[in-house]
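Worked problem 6 (solution included).
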Amino acid sequence: PNGYADIVELKLPDIYKSFVVGGKNRETFSAWLNLYISQTRVYSTYFDDPNNRKWFEKKYGFKVHKPRRWLVVGRRNDFDSDIWREIITDYKDIEILTFDDLVDGVVVQFYK
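Solution. The predicted structure is:
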């Protein structure tokens, strides 16, 4: 809405791996999920270079500067634990949504 683009990374809705690993009181995101998070970070740092921002704006018509990062992965029932909520608070600069969240957001737009 403000003329700036964000980064949205879409992964598969059906994941058959664990999102959380580690022992009791040491839980963390699994390596494969951290790879997805890191991927969005790399995309974001690309736009730290003013030349890349100018090229992107000229080609696509959107400004990009300090883009918000969004990762869409899995289904809501994959993320229903209190442990998940505790871990996600460590990640201040990325939003992780499920495909169910995405669909709910689209459905709401139809009823506004």
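Discussion: The mean pLDDT is 87.
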